[in-house]
Amino acid sequence: MENVVEKAKTCPLTELSPMHPELLKCPYSMNRRLQREAPVFQDPLSGIYFISRYDDVVAMAMDHQTFSSVMPGGGTGSLATADPEITAIMEKGYPNVSTMLTQDPPLQRRYRKFVDGAFSPANLKALEPFIEQLSNQFIDAFIDHGQCEFLGDFGIPLPLTIIASQLGVPTSDLPLLRKWTDAFIGNLSQQLDRDGQLKAARDILEFQHYFVEKMEERRKHAEEDILSKVVNASIDGEKPLDNAECLSMVSQILVAGNETTSAALTEGIWLLINNPDQYEIVRKDPSAENINALVEEILRITSPSANMFRRTTRDVEVAGVTIPENSICFARFAAANQDEDRFADALKFDITRTNLRDHVAFGKGVHHCLGAALSRREMNGGFKVIFQRLENFRLAPGASEPEFSANALLHGMTGLQLAFDKIA
Ligand code: HEM
Fold it and tell me: Is the pLDDT of residue 86 over 70?
């Protein structure tokens, strides 16, 4: 079988598609090549312009007037389709409207105002004991086995349980949240076959009905949760958000809040296994400072939110290439984080870098991640407990090397069979 990753190192650029599933899984050498030879590259298959250099990606993220986040069809990963069966399912639900991630200022700022307060430093500080309690609880469940499937046993449940608690969803409904997150992610991956798309449509419909019911409850009796804030907030006397707007916001918080942090936690452990010298630094001295440095370097190298869509509102020149008005572009945050001009020896995992925080894993500008501080706290708290209780990480005996999923927007592993020693 043809090795696409190898081929991409030397083939003519006209034969290269960054949307090829193998290159979505392993984009590193292709990214380097695009940065040097074609920093603005139009994918021959999808027509999407890929922008890969750090400075260009940052400039793009800062210029929301030229690079709009409002996509044709109502939003990133929208289910807009010509398939009558899928359309019939979606017609039983609520329309896909553009809110924070898929909206431009001033509307985008308006939506953000409803939820920004939920992630205030005081609220996040109060979450710290809960993050550590959950981390201990998940580790308790597998520590005596000497091994676990880290993604499913820790990486996913930690952010999922926290987001559920913040949204006001009972823990008994966590499997539903997981199923709905998978449906949204499957859609975003742009790799679903028709059966997959039908299932995603049904699951998203179920998500909508579930949350609309919860929203009605919160309109009658507000609680201390994000859902109550979203449905009841009225800023400057404006009318409260309608169901479609609330659903869009909840789905963004759910998807952005789960998959990305799970991916970073899990690939973080894999990076420690593969970089024993860096692991040794935190193993010997798991101080808050070292764990924080570890988290930032994991975010840079893994960049779980690898690519984000933008649509040009005018003809614009980037790195000498004119991108026509109304073109779809990818801001390649992951590629920017591996740019040698910004990060020396960029593919090296090095927690002692002096510019650790220069990464753009959380984006930049008006769309800078709503959950950046929450995610940082989850990762710092999670790793703190992990280093207190587990050591000598390695791949479980007989397990094969972990795989990465092929997703146009998100980067992450499909699982990690982990063996470890228990710290006495
Ligand atoms: C490691 C974890 C995370 C990563 C790597 C990440 C990455 C990003 C990136 C790159 C953006 C900017 C997108 C753009 O410019 O179009 C973004 C926006 C966003 N993130 Fe995160 N995120 C993470 C965790 C979270 C969490 C925990 C939440 C939930 C609270 C969250 C909610 C959001 C939302 C709602 C937006 C859209 C904000 C807006 O457009 O105004 N993210 N995130």
Answer: yes
